Description:
It contains six helices and seven strands, in the order βββαβαβββαααα. By secondary structure, the protein is α+β, with helices and mostly antiparallel strands.
Amino acid sequence: MGRGGAADGADADGVAPDGWPVALRGVTESVVTTLGPNDRWNVAALGIHAPADPGDPVTARTYGRTRTWRNFTERGGGVVQFTTDPRTFVDAALTVREVDDPVLETADAWVEVTAEEIGSETEGDTTIRTWALDPVESAVRRERVPTINRGFGAVVDATVAASRLDVPAFDTADLLGRLAYFADVVDRCGGPAEREAFARIDEATGWRALAAAEGTERGGDGDDEP
């Protein structure tokens, strides 16, 4: 494993922080593995917030008393990974997954980071903590030509909606409507990986049965063709 850095000019609209294997912009969706008390690596979704300036820290937030929060607190870091596999995102966001090795097979690039809590706030009963992530070492395992697939984006957005189904602060009917729309996008625009990923969302949440019971399941309202 070797220390890497984002390539110059990799993304004209992004920030290339020193020591990170990719350029970042806005909130970049990632998967993080953190070492738990059983010496296995917990897999979770993590939004990476790009700094306004390359000299500022890259940050991330944890919501409540999650395994990632616990492991960041007790272990002081983890391994942030970037992948284009939608199934990996679904498993990370909606299931409890533990692995023996910190770097996933589906990771295109990874960066080991230290995590330092630099702020916290409370919304309702949930404590939101902000962490500064400092790179230790990183590597790029695969380089790809970027392509756009609406199905992939729909899967990622669907994991956010699905993860909020049991949170009282969010309207269940609205979330179910979003999931129905995203399911329609995946059906029309996604490939086999995206469809398999959405089937995992169905299995993990049972949202279709809940939508049918509440009479809220509907088709998507977009008019774009695949």
